[in-house]
């Protein structure tokens, strides 16, 4: 997410430069993205929790299953 936002900020700078170059002088507009750090942290933690929970669930199922049957595919 951070890399995409920085690339968008770079695109704003490039396109602003091109528009000023071809359309004449104007006032530059600074577009900096503001980060909602609390929401980003909550989303990251919830995704991490979901991945760890899925890993635990899958590992428990694999440990309880019969390895010979699983490998044979029946």
Distance between the amino and carboxyl termini: 43 Å
Question: In which range does the helix fraction lie?
Answer: over 70%
Radius of gyration: 25 Å
- The general outline is elongated
Structural class: mainly alpha
What's the overall average pLDDT, rounded?
79
The largest pleated sheet is described as:
none
Transmembrane segments: 7-25, 37-57
Protein name: ABC3 transporter permease protein domain-containing protein
Organism: marine metagenome
Keywords: Membrane, Transmembrane, Transmembrane helix
Describe the protein's architecture and organization.
Keywords: Membrane, Transmembrane, Transmembrane helix. This is ABC3 transporter permease protein domain-containing protein. With 74 residues, the protein is an all-alpha fold. The chain folds into two domains: 34 residues; 39 residues. 76% of the residues lie in helices and 0% in strands. It has three helices and no strands. It is elongated and about 75 Å long.
